[in-house]
Amino acid sequence: MMKRPLTIRLCGPRGFCAGVDRAIQIVVLALKKYGAPVYVRHEIVHNRYVVEGLQARGAVFVEELDEIPPEHHAQPVVFSAHGVPKSVPADAEARNLFYLDATCPLVSKVHKQAMRHQRQGRHVLLIGHAGHPEVIGTMGQLPDGAVTLVETEEDAAGIQPADPAALGFVTQTTLSVEDTAGIISALQARFPDMQAPAANRSATPPPTVRTR
User: Among this protein's residues, is 64 annotated catalytic?
Assistant: First the structure.
């Protein structure tokens, strides 16, 4: 008896990037070294299975630092792989919190690229999605008004910078080349002097630790 042919569909793998894996390991190691609870500002990764697994070990996820009880200020708080605005470490220090910055090295690289654009007198165009934690963190590296968020090709066609000859762009790391190519092309067509991010071959930095 002949078997009917089968149709096999292969799903594309969607594993964690190295930065997210590193952040998860930082939480796990902090739990082993310091014991529970270990607080994590914002979900370490958008994966319910991982988040619940860390919660079972003693991780406590919070959106803001003021949710951490004063009696637990000696316990670690981990900043997620998405990165945070500069105001967050400053707030942690003001509260005398012990923090571990698990920002993905690629996100930290984008922060440095944005700051480099500003140091060189350029207005920064950030290609990304409004409200995403990484975008909030990147925009929070620079003063208000120093960064313009560009979400779509329509946005690229409509922005009116004060000096079209003094622009630099960076992109959200979780967007693919295909996601950003059309927007970058639209910006380059309008602003041929716009500067791309500088290459950075520096080694992966260790997590930032603020001890008591």
Answer: no
What is the distance between the alpha carbons of residues 20 and 13, in angstroms, rounded to a whole number?
16
Cβ neighbours of residue 53 closer than 8 Å, sequence gap 6 or more = none
List strand residue ranges (DSSP E) for 42-90, in order. Answer: 59-62, 76-79
Grouping H, G, I as helix, E, B as strand and the rest as coil, residue 193 is coil
The active-site residue, picked from 67, 134, 153, 154, is: 134
Contact 170, 123 (CB under 8 A): no
User: Is 210 a residue whose pLDDT tops 90?
Assistant: no
- Give dist(CA 98, CA 116) in Å, integer: 29
Given a contact cutoff of 8 angstroms between Cβ atoms, the answer to whether 31 and 39 are in contact is no
HSE-CB at 158 with a 13 A cutoff on CA atoms is 8
Q: Report the distance separating Cα 167 and Cα 62, nearest Å.
A: 36
pLDDT at 7: 86
pLDDT 10s digits, 30-42: 999 999 999 999 8
Say how far apart CA 41 and CA 138 lie, in whole Å: 16
pTM for this one?
Answer: 0.83
Q: Distance (Å, rounded) from C-alpha 98 to C-alpha 74?
A: 6
The pair of three-digit structure tokens given for residue 153, joined into one six-digit string: 């090709």
User: Which one, of 117, 187, 192, lies nearest residue 152 by Cα?
Assistant: 187
